[in-house]
Fold this sequence. Notes:
Blueprint: H1 2-59, E1 63-68, E2 73-76, H2 78-84, H3 95-99, H4 102-114, E3 116-124, E4 130-140, E5 146-155, H5 157-192, H6 199-230, E6 239-242, H7 243-253, H8 255-259, E7 264-267, E8 273-276, H9 278-295, E9 301-308, E10 314-320, H10 342-347, H11 354-364, E11 369-373, E12 379-385
Parallel strand pairs: 7-9
Antiparallel strand pairs: 1-2, 1-5, 3-4, 4-5, 6-8, 9-10, 10-12, 11-12
Helix pairs in contact: 5-6, 6-11, 7-9, 9-11
Bound molecules: adenosine-5'-diphosphate.
Amino acid sequence: xxxVLAILLLFLALGVHLAWKRRFxxxxxxxxxxxxxxxxxxxxxxxxxKAREQVLFNSMLEGLLLLDHNHRITLAxxxxxxxxxxxxxxxxxxILEALRLHALEDLVSQVETNGQVLNYELKLPDIxxxxxxxxxxxIHDSDGRREGTILVFHDxxxxxxxxxxxxxxxxxxxxxxxxxxxxxxGYVETLLDGASQQPEVTQRFLKIIxxxxxxxxxxxxxxxxxxxxxxERIQLSLQPVSLRGLADKxxxxxxxxxxxxxxxxxNNLEDFLVLIDPNRMDQVLANLVDNAIKYGRTHxxxxxxxxxxxxxSVEVHVRDDGPGIPPEALDRVFERFYRVDKAxxxxxxxTGLGLSxxxxxxxxxxxxxxxxxxxxxxxxxxxxxPPLPPS
Length: 391
Ligand code: ADP
């Protein structure tokens, strides 16, 4: 009897133990699963944050470079790599290993000494000169220990080019103004010094003074036009205009000039209707025909023509049979103050700005301008005008 009771008790104790163990195991399993889930979610959040950081850094226009406290690269964003033309992984490399740029290495040392360096201008040793502006600072951790360096790079090349173009423009303008001004000054002084006693000399000097005053006037007018066109202050007043009518008016205005060189002006234009600002387009055609007369040959001919292109735009041309333009100057003639033959242009009263004005006006009409020429066989200037919008 006691033995049976003892066995029953033993079974009971075993049953209770097994039940508790199963429950305990289930709880532990659940706990472990929750822990795993938490870890996975934490990892996902970290990965997500990292990916977001990466997208953010790579979408920056500025180049970004992070260095650790040993000056080893920990991050270089996409803009940085494109600014420096690097395609390989940079993480872990020093600046010298990655870029071979001593100037940048020196800058990092400067940042370390001073805490930060702002607006540092770095010239890259490229074939095409490139400039970067660098802002850099040391990064500290929450305990104030130096953790690394951050450098932000901004491409300054375009700004530098604009600055140089502006400086060249100012230098050119000063030079162009100085030449007629010093002539005027010289002749006035000679007249004051007694030359005015001789009427013949006076007459000759006054004529020179008048010619140079006109030259100054033309130059200032052209400069004002260029400046207005470049600052886009000029609003085109577009209207449908007969191209042939416009050309007729210009040819009749310039008839006397052409006759003085025994040249013939021919209007071969069909009557296209184009949407243009007539005053501005007048300037374009007048400049091109005037150049054709100026640089064309005596007894030569100048012809205006046009054709409609497949996309309905109109291509206009002004052709002469003068000496033409050498191949290396074909693109450059549209630059401000560029002349193939400086002395000849000045003799003819040229300012060197006419074709630059032509280019601005054509581009403001959404057109294109270019020149084709064979030396000794004349030059043909072309420009396009967009099609009339459907009414
Ligand atoms: P410019 O006032 O000197 O005529 P432009 O800008 O009108 O200035 O022209 C620039 C240069 O292009 C001229 O100096 C001249 O050397 C060249 N050029 C322009 N048109 C012709 C042409 N029809 N034939 C030959 N050369 C030309």
